[in-house]
Amino acid sequence: MVPLAARSAWRLALSVGITLGILFVCAGRVLAGPKVDVVTIEQGNRLTCEIKRLDRGRLTIGTDALDTVSVYWDRVEGLMSPRVFEVELEDGRRYYGSLDVVAPRRLRVGPAGTGPELDMRAIIRITPLEATFWTRLDGNVDLGFSFSKADLETRWTLNAEVNYRSRNYEGTVALASQLTARENADQLSRNTLSLSGRRLFGRRWFGVLLGQLQENQELSLDLRTVAGGGGGRYLVQSNSTALQLFSGIVHTREQFSGEDVRNSPEALLGTKWDWFSARNNDLDLSTTAIGYFNVGGTARTRFELQSAFRVEFLKDFYFSVNGFTSVDSSPPEGRSNSDAGISVSLGWKF
Among 80, 122, 85, 123, which Cα is nearest to 103's? Predict the structure, then answer.
């Protein structure tokens, strides 16, 4: 049985997360800026709009006639705006200033007539510097359900993530939850709440603070807390993919059912790979793999893998296939050393 305190913590975390998510979305939808920007797309078509951001191969703009829409970046030929933006290139360099067209797919960043001339194909991110906290948020939430008549098994899955990015900082809150109920059997749950904050440095380097709460009744894990920090680098970033590598030191505290509390320092090594289709952006693949290595004397290795493949079928809505794997080289005696699962769900991104 999961301790009452642990159950309460998970319920509180879930309630707070859902509440904050609703507030984030509602606030973000009602904020709008001036329509003083001009976007030129293929065949010379010009749109007067508000440039909201460029990210993951899509330029998001706000218009009076079309509301908020996304334009594939490889179809954009020019941008003009008197406002000040942060423009980031594939190699990690950043420039700040207004935007002006020099030639098709050539952009000047800086005061009128000055500033560097950039190849738009090398630009991966554009952010207005006056952007508010709410408009710097993006995320997704998806829910899955399955039912088996043979053993009356019902399974619910919930995955949610909120990301924040400013000029020098990134933050992520992610929740992955699975509940399985069978006739004449105890319910089994698996919950992971992850938090990370990053300080960005030049040429794609970053420092990171991270924390995690985890419960897995399949492995008799009542509660695991992980907290620590480290650093890493974006090895590759473009308008179709992003690959990062990071490492650090964390302190891990674990409570398995019927066992004494474990406390141990661990070294971690992880990677995250994101791929998204640059032309139509209907496909999105994200995979995170982290290895934890005990440095407190006992030889032990843990491995966590999470992956999601999403297919967009309607604006902001998608189908998702989510998978996870957990492996422990030295579990408590008589307990399973691994767990894995896969789910299909329906989601919404914002």
Answer: 80
Taking the CB of residue 234, how many other CB atoms lie within 10 A of it?
19
Domain range spanning residue 169?
Answer: 138-349
Q: The pTM is what?
A: 0.82
Instruction: Look at the block and give the residue holding tokens 């067209």.
Output: 101
Residues comprising the chain, all counted: 350
Same domain, 297 and 164: yes
Residue type, 318: Y
Structure tokens at 153: 């098994």
Query: Which distant-in-sequence residues (6+ apart) come within 8 Å of 177 by Cβ?
Result: 14, 156, 157, 158, 159, 189, 190, 191, 192
Q: List b or e across 314-323, with b for residues whose CB sees 16 or more CB atoms inside 10 angstroms.
A: eeeebebebe
Note the pLDDT of residue 279.
66
User: Measured between alpha carbons, how far is residue 206 from residues 165, 174, 240, 296, 334 in Å?
Assistant: 13, 19, 21, 27, 41
pLDDT at residue 278 in the model? 64
96 with 172, same domain: the answer is no
Q: Which amino acid is at 48?
A: T
Look over the chain and give the mean of its residue pLDDT values, rounded to a whole number.
Answer: 85
Mark whether 207 and 223 lie in a shared domain. yes
Rounded distance, CA 167 to CA 321, Å? Answer: 32
| Exposure b/e, 117-156, CB count within 10 A at least 16 = b | ebebeebbbbbbeebeebbbbbbbbbbbeeeeeeeeeebb
Task: Report d(CA 173, CA 169) in Å as an integer.
Answer: 14
Same-domain check for residues 209 and 115:
no
Res. 320: pLDDT tops 90 = yes
Predicted confidence (pLDDT) per residue in 238-277, tens digit:
999 999 999 999 999 999 998 899 899 999 999 999 998 8
Query: Looking at this protein, which amino acid is placed at residue 280?
Result: N
